[in-house]
Amino acid sequence: MFRSEYADVPPVDLPIHDAVLGGAAAFGDAPALIDGTDGTTLTYEQVDRFHRRVAAALAETGVRKGDVLALHSPNTVAFPLAFYAATRAGASVTTVHPLATAEEFAKQLKDCAARWIVTVSPLLDTARRAAELAGGVQEILVCDSAPGHRSLVDMLASTAPEPSVAIDPAEDVAALPYSSGTTGTPKGVMLTHRQIATNLAQLEPLMPAAPGDRVLAVLPFFHIYGLTALMNAPLRLGATVVVLPRFDLEQFLAAIQNHRITSLYVAPPIVLALAKHPLVADYDLSSLKYIVSAAAPLDARLAAACSRRLGLPPVGQAYGMTELSPGTHVVPLDAMTDAPPGTVGKLIAGTEMRIVSLTEPGKDLPADESGEILIRGPQIMKGYLGRPDATAAMIDEEGWLHTGDVGHVDTDGWLFVVDRVKELIKYKGFQVAPAELEALLLTHPGIADAAVVGEYDDDGNEVPRAFVVRQPAAPDLAEGEIMMYVAERVAPYKRVRKVTFTDAVPRAASGKILRRELRGRA
């Protein structure tokens, strides 16, 4: 068993809005959130006051403890207001990918019985259609403005009393992101107030922030990585968060230059752009102090190329998953120069890890031997919503969460993730479940069987590749038709990027698809 070398932190038994914004009064007029596109700025005092007014309006509307509110939005300065207002009113927040189709959104709404939606006007049509399909949605609110819908701006004028909700941080769910876990279709991950708040305290000694620091939030807040690293963590410590709605390289580089960004939390495709794209040379990025990459594996050579080009310490990595609130490992800021290339870091405070054999279940392995990574700590999820069997398959009776990742630890405690047992595809940090795409492909009348695996493209992104068996009646079924069929029914990040026709999908006697064989073919 491997234990963190850092001192344990006590559980943070606070609602997440208090754990994050409890120091807002002390930060006062310091900028908390800046819109990186138009410069709109909210101070800490405004974030604190505004989210309390929106919480009052939500409570007046009928939001009660136990309700679920779906937050369906790209990054905006209003996103944190909506999140903290909802939790202060007693609701759990389920975050929704802004590019989800109405059908995908509806599945999530129905699964978690969400009664409220907060969205933005460009996404209203999708939200309305999803609400119709799911049923049970009482009202759709907007962050900006739209005819026929109340906005958060309108709600700031509420004179209703601020809600006083008895929240049990250890039991009550604050966030309900959806994750595929190690396999299967997306499931609601129940993260309590204590789990998220304690994970912030665990990460702080290794990844400190302070007033004057400027963090660029380009990775989505709806993803647990963005929610923690780019929203909760910096706002808890008085830093300034500059918000971008999506990644556009020119806009991204201009924001670093114009807002004097000091720290970046990114995914590997952004590291690739910083290392190789000619546009980078046109901007002054000298304010940057460090870069951290997570959400997907980062090639050590690519990380080195990025740091050399920008004159920065080596790009640090971090490791975790939605089910872990999300962090378990990070390369400490003060150790970035000395950390071995390719490591995802050291165990954070209060966290334990085992590396177990892939061939002898339950057998613990020593340093430098690769096996499945198991994690135990206060940040482990409460469970999957309504899926006790899936929860039991993920977390064993001793409280160890089986990550499905394969790795090894060196004698100094650095973790290296070398492979994945799990079948999940990570496209630019977003989770794509092969089973979900396979089920969709099998609805095509011309497809007899199908399997999906991940394959790395020329830019280092893992993309879905489908192996398809044609129906005898559809001998002319083409690759383009299949890719279009999928594209019309899923969010863009889930699209099948390549198709290979085959006579049969290889399967074990149990019926399980032999994906390793297919990866070999690819």
Output the keywords.
27 strands; nine-stranded mixed beta sheet; about 25% strand; Rossmann fold; alpha/beta; five-stranded antiparallel beta sheet; about 525 residues; GMP Synthetase, Chain A, domain 3; globular
Notes on the protein architecture:
The chain has 522 residues and is an alpha/beta fold. The chain folds into two domains: 2-404, Rossmann fold, CATH 3.40.50; 425-521, ANL, C-terminal domain (GMP Synthetase, Chain A, domain 3). 29% of the residues lie in helices and 24% in strands. It is built from 16 helices and 27 strands. It has a nine-stranded mixed sheet, sandwiched between helices. Strand 6, helix 6 and strand 7 form a beta-alpha-beta unit. The two termini are 37 Å apart. The mean pLDDT is 94.
Q: Please state how the strands of the largest beta sheet are arranged side by side.
A: 3-2-12-11-13-14-15-16-17
Number of helices: 16
Shape label: globular
Q: What is the β-strand count?
A: 27
Distance between the ends: 37 Å
In helices, the fraction of residues equals 25-40%
- Average pLDDT taken over every residue: 94
The structure class reads alpha/beta
Based on CA atoms alone, the radius of gyration comes out at 23 Å
Spans where pLDDT lies below 50 across 5 or more residues = none
- The level 1 CATH classification of the largest domain is Alpha Beta
Number of domains: 2
Question: What characterizes the major β-sheet?
Answer: 9 strands, mixed
CATH superfamily of the largest domain: ANL, N-terminal domain
If classified by CATH, what would the architecture of the largest domain be?
A: 3-Layer(aba) Sandwich
